[in-house]
Give the backbone structure.
Amino acid sequence: MRVNLSHRYPRVMQLRDGSQVTVRPMSRADESALVEFFQGIPARERFFLKDDVTSRNVIRGWIENLDLSYAVPLLAFDGHNVAGNAVLIRHRSASLAHAGEIRVVIAPDSRARGLAVTLMNELVEVAREAGLREVLFECVAGIQELAIHAAEYLGAEVAGDLKAWVRDDQDQGHDVVFLRLKL
């Protein structure tokens, strides 16, 4: 996934509520801001993320191993604070080289402003520019409902689900919903 991001960012984007955020790719200078951002995400939601985002070592690993041919991580800043984090991940296998996955996390005080849709849409455009033909959104039903609605707003359709696929800290099963957006 070769994409020239220098012409796109940083970029001021207006949200549905009229407020503005500055969007740009993650950089080495973002470690502390990202740790602070993820600490502000409710523990119940963080539990279902794919990495332990409360670990400074995990965040540092993302930054030190940044490979834009594999992943394009975008941050949305409201002033000096991270309001949202989104990433487009390209599959490395030849059979899935046409597809990517988009993940998004929004700070609680930045929700219901259109930020998730804005970041998802931005990464859909990056995916198109990179020549991808479709993107996948993988969401936990009942936990990541806003992400599901944002993906559907962009035109993604439910491709399937896995019943009780993930378990919470009380060992309660939750469905995982897969949404597919053809580009």
Summary: Residues 152 and 179 are 8 Å apart (CA to CA). The mean pLDDT is 94. The chain has one domain: 11-182.
